[in-house]
Design a protein that fits this description.
59 residues; alpha+beta; 3-stranded antiparallel beta sheet
Length: 59
């Protein structure tokens, strides 16, 4: 299965609770932190909700 590298590039300050929880569920806590996930529809949906705060690359 393909992998995605998700990097947090912006702060979650002044964001909704839903967006903050989505970042935490993706495993992102600090700016410039990179996590790797399987490329599934669930992960793609979470990334879509916070696409303005993260960058995504194929791994």
């Amino acid at each position: 299965m393909a992998k995605l590298q998700v990097k947090k590039v912006k702060s979650a300050i002044n964001r909704t609770q839903r967006q903050k929880r989505t970042l935490v569920s993706l495993g992102l806590h600090k700016i410039n932190q990179v996590v790797e996930h399987d490329d599934t529809l669930v992960i793609r949906g979470m990334i879509a909700k916070v696409q303005h705060l993260v960058s995504v690359e194929e791994a």
